[in-house]
Specification:
Radius of gyration: 14 Å
Strand content: 25-35%
Helix content: 25-40%
Order of helices and strands: EHEEEHEEH
Number of strands: 6
Shape: globular
Structural class: alpha+beta
Length: 113
């Protein structure tokens, strides 16, 4: 079995991500995405996939890192410009800090954290 590690960027509700609820409040801006994708270094564009209004960015495949810094930089930049959040492996909010805190509060309220 191959292990894939990925980052998601989108307008998700950070309080519902841990329930694997990746409902998108609104899609990412297509023009901004096109601009960012055009600036990516060679080899990174194949790691970026549009998925129903959000992006999935693979940064490790088979357990081996594949350009992790470039992918993570793209995720943070896009989230900052779009005002959305970064989620690791579909479960853990990592950016921005207020979204991370909102997820932690939801986890605590459910007795999970």
């Amino acid at each position: 079995m191959s292990l894939t590690i990925y980052t998601l960027v989108g307008h998700f509700d950070p309080r519902r991500v841990h329930k694997r609820d990746l409902s998108v409040a609104r899609p990412l801006d297509k023009e901004r995405l096109d601009t960012l994708l055009a600036e990516l270094p060679a080899g990174v564009t194949g790691l970026v996939h549009a998925r129903g209004g959000y992006l999935q960015l693979r940064w490790a495949q088979g357990g081996w890192p594949v350009l992790p810094r470039a992918v993570r930089d793209l995720a943070r930049r896009l989230a900052s410009e779009e005002g959305c959040i970064v989620v690791e492996n579909g479960l853990r909010v990592t950016y921005p800090p207020e979204a991370y805190r909102a997820q932690q509060e939801a986890l605590e309220a459910e007795g999970i954290a």
